[in-house]
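Researcher: Please translate sequence to structure tokens.
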Amino acid sequence: MRDKVRAFYYPDFVPDNITLKKAILLFDEIHFMDRPSFTFYLGEDVQAGGFGLIGANSPLRSYEASFRENGVPLYVHSAPGGPIRGELLENVRADVKDTNFLLRFQEGLRQSDRFLELHVPNANYAGGETQSSIAHKLSAVNLRDFPSPLDVYFDKRLRPFEYSTDEHVVKELVRHAMTCSAKMNFALSVGAKHGFSPLADARPFNDLVSAKYTRALDAISKKSAVGIPSTDLSMAILDELVPSDRLYELTLGEVVTYRRESVKAREAFMEHLAVLENKLSTVRGDQDYGDAIKNLIVTEIRPAASRFQNEMATIYERLFGALLKRGMLAGTAALASTHLWGDLSWQHLCTLSVGAGSLLVDKAIDAFLETRKAKRECALSYLLDVIKN
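Model: Translation complete:
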């Protein structure tokens, strides 16, 4: 019996629409938190560099009960508040002292619109600054010119929320990285305590987790290894197999219905995922976290998906190839194609057989049985079917 995948979303109090759809399709439970009201005093002097986050309830609270009634175990938890202290404080300190962590945070602002929006929302800022101008300055400043960015952050001569000099920009970069680090470390600690897997909706978060792993491994041994969370692995597989534009086309209601009506297929995929985790999902001390996931996609997922798609194409050819050559399908080819991939009920078979005779019915029954067998043998068919339905 596999362990449940209980995903905990941490970047903010509500995910991107596509991320929510992916989570509904994939995970056994989905956990969210309200926006935390952390306050930050990382120096000896509480007046130095203090700032805070404004807490708020997650919009998903209004739909929590409805999701669960429709078979999606979705939960929203109250968020912590007040000054960060203890282990959380030390973890945030360690992150913002780590140049690799800050460089990856900076790279995330360049690469991901979602990551940027979470840290620098699109708005008009003081001094005529905009999201675009701030993003350019934060991502362009050369951190190698500042041996200790945290010391720059605590420099009382630099006014906060300004971007007029490189020093001001570094101060703001560290501030944004602090808020990101606090949410990430809180999520990891909650996950360790309650068995949740961290879930984010932008690749830079994975890169930041990788930076933390690298730092931890350096402190232990280069031969050590860490596991890839189920959330990261399953989201990577879904992104590989299901185009984002297909998910955009589906409404939330359709995604919920698909999950509810595909219980056995989803369970087969999650069992397959557990096998992959046990087999291949460790990251060595000398290996990049993201590269480990890419390697798994290349060596395991793509070949399995290709075999399944080729087998389904062969079934299709056996069913319709000869009939198309004989001109027997007339205007029913499109209908036949649709129902081949779905559930060929007797009503569908009768409709399909009009004008094609009993030969088509016999072949359709054979194809239906072959299709069911192919799907049973390929756990990835659960995700591949999202494209077609």
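Researcher: Any highlights?
Model: The chain has two domains: 6-215, 304-388.
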